UniProtKB/TrEMBL annotation, chain A:
Gene3D superfamilies: P-loop containing nucleotide triphosphate hydrolases. GO terms for biological process: L-amino acid transport. This is ABC transporter ATP-binding protein. Involved in beta-(1-->2)glucan export. Transmembrane domains (TMD) form a pore in the inner membrane and the ATP-binding domain (NBD) is responsible for energy generation. Belongs to the ABC transporter superfamily. It comes from Bradyrhizobium nitroreducens. CDD domains: ABC_TM1139_LivF_branched. It comes from the Bacteria. Residues 8-242 form the ABC transporter domain. InterPro entries: AAA+_ATPase, ABC_transporter-like_ATP-bd, ABC_transporter-like_CS, BCAA_Transport_ATP-bd_LivF, P-loop_NTPase.
TrEMBL record, chain B:
It comes from the Bacteria. The keyword Membrane applies. It holds the Pfam family BPD_transp_2. GO terms for cellular component: plasma membrane. Belongs to the binding-protein-dependent transport system permease family. LivHM subfamily. This is Branched-chain amino acid transporter permease subunit LivH. It is found in: Cell membrane. Keywords: Amino-acid transport, Cell inner membrane, Cell membrane, Membrane, Transmembrane, Transmembrane helix, Transport.
Length: 246, 305
């Protein structure tokens, strides 16, 4: 192997909620500059993988390497300082804080100068102009699409090298979902941001991604480029053509 | 009318003290969802530390009262804050992921520990101090000879409370720590994902709550001229009531509830009977909660997210 160290390498990762094992030995690699999609049915363990990277829950076995450094046991709040950001399942914006404060919470996650903060804020406004209009409004009063934009914007405010996006299109109107996918593509192409995206909307995700992984019952069953995976008959059957979403 | 005005002043002073204690209850409830039943005793500890510091400074030969009071204020805030931090660390944090009632039971136990510890260490008798701040102003004297008095200590209590509330409000709404506290209150997991050290933030909440209770303890000492090991119980229950009345979890609500309880108690004592003042305060609590279950400024538990 001559390829450089991946930005994030997950090796034989196991995690569980109580006695229920959600990850049963997962291997995933994400290279700098890539968009990697993780697809799979509900309950396959996709969100658990995202959260385990942040140590919630803690991995029971295996390793998480970030820029070659083992971060498996780093406390959750220190992961953000390493410039890994997450827009989690369910968005989890702070409903009783203004949009401005939600974004500031993201900016607080890493050290930055006022000028850098301002530049990042302007970048977020360019991607999601709605956030500028809603700047003083409380997070809880935003629509679902706006909340999703805020969740991504908040993650971006920490100026991450690696962005984890959990179901960014869930529950959104197709037009809004497209806006969000466009923003992710722009961030990747223009800013060189590395993205791991979890999606049930496999078609969108695989078209967007350079590479993809398919997860079933806590295990990676398939891996390949986005285009390859889109051609696989079993993917088409399971996730694209009237496959059960549930 | 003059009598009414005098009682209004008295009630606001008492309410300020309750309000300062109530903030500690409501802050802790907001961030960790438990009632810190030991908080009233933290207030009592604050009173004792103020008394001890005061006596030490006097015995050292200091005579400048403003200087003494400033030192007493800072020392009692600091040491009481340390108590608050320690209580959270040893009695609550190990139980945080236990079942919901566990930390509450631990809090009740901690309340007994603090009460008995103070009784053993300081004795069971009431500890009086000579009046430190004397004098005042006669605001109005009516024809029948009734005077409205505003004493200096009352002025000090109210002004100190206002200043502290201003600082505290600024801290919660404008600073990084305050934002982190509110983030933890709304979603601890998300706060952690954003780099907030949740344990440290919760510790700071206890520290700030205890420091405010220490100020209330000092005010109580100066206003009533005494402390005793049992004073945290009743004052704690009243302040807790104030927090619930104002809407538990709401910071302005805690202060408003404190003022309400102070006023109710004072007016009831003035116009009806001193013996039944607590009955009056708690009866009004019950009536308010029947019609406004979330308190005066509380928000409903269910929220669209």
């Amino acid at each position: 192997m001559t390829s450089p160290t991946p930005l994030l390498a997950i090796r034989s990762l196991r995690a569980a909620y109580g006695k229920i094992e959600a990850l049963k030995g997962v291997d995933v690699e994400i290279n700098a500059g890539e968009i990697v999609a993780l697809i799979g049915a509900n309950g396959a363990g996709k969100s658990t993988l995202m959260m385990t990277i942040f140590g919630k829950p803690r991995a029971r076995a295996g390793q998480i390497l970030y820029e070659g450094r083992d971060i498996t046991d780093v406390p959750t709040h220190e992961i953000a300082h390493l410039r890994i950001a997450q827009s989690p399942e369910g968005r989890r914006i702070f409903p009783r804080m203004s949009v401005a404060e939600n974004l500031q919470m993201g900016a607080d996650a890493t050290e930055c100068t006022d000028a850098e903060r301002e530049a990042t804020l302007q970048r977020v406004f360019t991607l999601f102009p709605r956030l500028k209009e809603r700047y003083a409004q409380r997070g809880g009063t935003l629509s679902g699409g706006e909340q999703q934009m805020l969740a991504i914007g908040r993650a971006l405010m920490s100026r991450p090298r690696l962005l984890l996006l959990d179901e960014p299109s869930l529950g959104l109107a197709p037009l809004i979902a497209r806006q969000i996918f466009d923003a992710i593509r722009t961030l990747n192409r223009q800013d060189g941001l590395t993205v791991l995206i979890v999606e049930q909307n496999a078609n969108h995700a695989l078209k967007l991604a350079h590479r993809g992984y398919v997860m079933v019952n806590g295990l990676i069953t398939l891996a390949g480029t986005g285009a390859e995976l889109l051609q696989r008959p079993e993917i088409r059957a399971a996730y694209l053509e009237g496959g059960r979403h549930g | 009318m003059d009598y009414f005005a005098q009682q209004l002043i008295n009630g606001l002073v008492l309410g300020s003290i309750y309000g300062l204690i109530a903030i500690g209850y409501t802050m802790v409830y907001g961030i960790v969802g438990m009632i810190n039943f030991a908080h009233g005793d933290v207030f009592m500890i604050g009173g004792f530390i103020a008394l001890i510091t005061f006596l030490i400074l006097i015995s050292l030969g200091l005579t400048a009262i403003p200087l003494i009071l400033l030192v007493v204020l800072l020392v009692s805030m600091a040491i009481t804050a340390l108590y608050g931090w320690t209580i959270e660390r040893i009695a609550y944090r190990p139980l945080r992921h236990s079942f919901r009632l566990a930390p509450m039971l631990s809090a009740i136990g901690m309340s007994f520990v603090l009460t008995n510890y103070s009784q053993v260490a300081q004795g069971a008798r009431v500890k009086p101090i000579p009046p430190v701040i004397t004098g005042g102003y006669t605001l109005h004297e009516s024809a029948d000879g009734f005077v409205i008095q505003l004493s200096n200590i009352q002025i000090i209590v109210v002004i100190t409370t206002i200043v502290l509330l201003a600082i505290f409000t600024w801290l919660v709404s404008r600073t990084r720590l305050g934002r982190d506290m509110r983030a933890c209150e709304q979603d601890q997991t998300m706060a952690a994902l954003l780099g907030v050290d949740v344990d440290r933030t919760i510790s700071m909440t206890f520290v700030i709550g205890a420091a405010l209770a220490a100020v209330a303890g000092l005010m109580y000492l100066l206003y009533y001229g005494l402390v005793d090991f049992f004073m945290g119980f009743v004052a704690g229950i009243k302040a807790f009531t104030a927090a619930v009345l104002g809407g538990i979890g709401s910071l302005p609500g805690a202060m408003l509830g404190g003022l309400a309880i102070g006023l109710i108690e004072t007016f009831w004592s003035a116009y009806f009977s001193v013996e039944y003042k607590d009955v009056a305060a708690f009866s009004i609590l019950i009536v308010v909660l029947i019609f406004m279950p979330t308190g005066l400024l509380g928000r409903p538990e269910v929220e669209k997210v």
